[in-house]
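Recap quiz, item 2
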Amino acid sequence: MLLIAGAMARSPTLFVSPRESPIGKRLTTLMSIGFLALVAAGIAAAWMTQRNQVHARWVEHTYRVENAIIDLRRLIEEGETTRRGYLLAPDVPLLRTAYEATARDLPVRLSALDALVADNALQRRNVVELDAQIGPIAAARAQSIALVDAGRVVEARDLFHTETASRRMMAVRRTMNRMIAIERTLLAQRDAELRDAVHAFYVMLALTGVLLVVVALISLAAVLTYTRDLGRSRDTLNELNANLEAIVADRTADLTRANEEIQRFAYIVSHDLRSPLVNVMGFTAELEASTQQLAQLVDRAEQEAPHLVSEDARLAAREDLPEAIGFIRTSTQKMDRLINAILMLSRQGRRVLSPERLDLVALVENIRDAMTHRLTEADAEIVIEQPMPDVVSDRFSLDQILSNLVDNAVKYLKPGVPGRITVRGRRQASRIIIEVADNGRGIDPRDHSRVFDLFRRSGTQDRPGEGIGLATVRALVFRLGGHIEVSSTLGEGATFRLTLPLSLEPQDRSE
Amino acid sequence: MNASSNPQSVNIVMIEDDEGHARLIEKNIRRAGILNEIRHFTDGTTALDYLFNAADGPQRNGPALVLLDLNLPDMSGTDILARIKGSDGPVRRTPVVVLTTTDDKVEIQRCYDLGANVYITKPVNYESFAQAIRQLGLFLSVIQVPDLDDGR
C-alpha cells in the first residue's frame, strides 16, 4: 500500500502541462506582429495612392503649361501668317479680322501662361522674357497693319523687309522651347519621384509580405511544436496510466496473494491446533476421572485410617486438583471456540463468491422468520422499510452479514424497552447502502472501531459470545467489495451502515 | 468382530499420527467392550506396508478394520484410502472408518467418493469424543466384516 501511495504521489507532477501559458503568449505576440504588418501595408497603400494623385495633378499641370505655350506659339505664328497675308492682299478683309483676333488673344494667352507658371520663378522669368520679346513683334505688326490700313502698302512692305521679325521669332521659339524643356524636366523629375515612391511602396509591400510569411511560419512552427508536445505528453500520460494500472494490478495481486497466504495460514494453524487440543481436553477428562477415584480413596482413607491422610493430600485431592482441572477445562473450551471462530472466518475467506440478483426484502424477511421465536422472547420486532433496491451479490455472504447484524441488535437490547430493529436500503450511484438500526443499548463511541475486531467486545459482558460476529461481518463486507461503519451513542441504539457495490463482479478463484 | 461366528479375530488397524489421540481412541474402544487386537501405526508408509505385505495383514491373512486419520506426516489419509479401495486384492473389502478432525464438506465427500465406509469427525469436546468412540466401538461389535475366503 505504501508503494502504491508513493507511486500516486510521484506521478501528479507529470500530469501538469508546463507549456500552456508560454504558447499563448507567443501566439499573441506573433499575431500582434502580423496585425501591425498589415496595418503598415495599409498605411503604405494609402500614402501611395495620395502620392499618385499628387503626381497626376502635377502631370496634368505640366501638360496644361505645355498646351498654353503651344497655343501661344500658334497664336504668334498665326498672327504672323495673317499679317503677311494682309500685306500681300490688303483687299481681303477676312485676313484683317483674323489678324485682329490673334492680336487680341495674344496678351490673354500670355497672362494665362503667366498664371499657370506662377509657382515657378524660373518659368516666370521666361514668361517675362517672352513678354519682352513678343512686345516689339506685336508693335512692328501693329505698325505694318496700320500702314496698310492707311493705304501705304508699299511703305508697309518696305518696313516688313527691314524689320528683324524673323530673328525675333527665332528668339521667341527658343524661349518657348526652353520653357517646354523646363516643364519636361520637371515632369521627368516628378516621374522619377513617383517611380521611387512606387518602388518604396513595393519594397514595403514585399517587406510586409515577408514579415507576414515569417510570422505565419513561426506561428505554424509554434503550433506544431505545441501539438507535438501535447501529443508527447498525452503519450507519456497514457504510458504512465498503463504503468499505474500495471503497478496497481501488481500490488493487488500481491495483496491477494498475501491475503490468500493468511487465509491458508489461519486455516492450517487453526486446524492443526485442534489436534493437540483434543489431547489436552481428553486427558484432562481422564485426569478428572482419576481425580475422582483419588478423592474417593482419600475419603475412604480418612474414614478407615485417618492418620494416613495428611492435610496437604486432602487439599490436593479435594480442592487443588479439581480447581486446576476446572481451569484447564474452561481455558481449553474457550480456546476451542476461538479456534473454531478463526477456522470459520478463514473458511469464509476461501469460499468462492457467486453473485446473483437478490431481493433484499425477501432476504431480510427470511432472517426475520427464522428468528421469530427469539424476537417474541426478547419482546422485539423487525421493521423492513420497503422498497429496497435489488442487489447483485453473494447470497450466503449477505445473509450472514444481515443475520449477524440483526442477531446483534436483538442480543443487545436496552432492558425494559421493547426492541425495534429497522432495516432499510437505498441506492446511491453504483452502490447500495443498507442500514440496520436498533433502539438498543448502543455502543460507546470509543469502541466503534474495536467492535469489528476479532475477539473484541464492547459494553457490559453479560451476553454469551466470543466477539466473532462483527469481525465476520466486516470480513464478509470487505470480500463483497464494500465497507461498514457504525454510528451510535451509548444508551440510544446503534445504526450499522453497510455500503456495497450494486453489482458484484463475478470472480473465478478456486478454493 | 463376532468371535463366535468368525473363528479368526478381526484386527483393528489404527492409522493415527497423534499418540494422544491413539491412546484416547484405544481407551474408549476398550471401554465399549471391544477386546480385539489394535495395531497402531503413526505413519502411512508402515501402515500400508502392514496392510499389503505383513504376514498377518489383511491382504494375506485375516479380516481387519481400518481406523484412518487423514492428517498424517508422510502422506495424506486420502491417499491411503485410495490405495486400499483401489487395490484389487481382498484389502479392498476391508471396512475403512475415517476418523479425523477435518469437518470440511469437500473432504468428507471426497472420502466417500473414494470408498470410505464411515466418516466420523473427532469432536473436540472430549465428552462427545469419548462418546463417539464408544458408539463406534458398539458399532464395531455388530458389523460384519467380509470373510477373506469370499474373495478367493
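The beta strands of chain B are 11-15, 38-41, 64-68, 96-100, 118-121.
Helices of chain B lie at 19-31, 44-53, 77-86, 105-114, 126-142, 148-151.
End of item.
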